[in-house]
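Field reference: "sequence" (input) and "structure" (output). Example, OB-fold putative lipoprotein:
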Amino acid sequence: MKKLIKWIFYIFIGFMVLGYFASKNDKSTTSTSSSTAETQESAPQQEVFSTTARQLFKAYDENEVATDENMKGKIVAVKGVVESIDKDFTDSIIIGFQTDNQFMPARMEMKDSEKPTAIALKKGQQVTVICERMSRVMGSPSGRDCVFAK
């Protein structure tokens, strides 16, 4: 029985490692395709969905399906007050924005190129981030592939 549990644990860890590398590969493919799009002058600009972290949390709380549908195909600009500046287990920079629920901040995963700006950031500052993808993870908004607005 112990061997079975040990093998299940090893398989689970293996899937996590595979998922990590697959998501990193997806990020590099996305950055390559976006730089190609930037070089083409005739490429259409994506529509921007602007909101605040508090409004986004409330919208997801009221109707997750409608909120995702409203943001579909758009880049999302989120303005908020910085609650935390952290790193996750993959060393990605995570900026937490205050929401109406003190235990569930809106979490934005920043691109690695944003490290110098994140280093200078302080709790309580109001900033805007622009994310390529937005979803709801465990009840709170979660942005991916984000950059600080200039």
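The chain has two domains: 1-40, 48-148.
Residues 97 and 150 are 18 Å apart (CA to CA).
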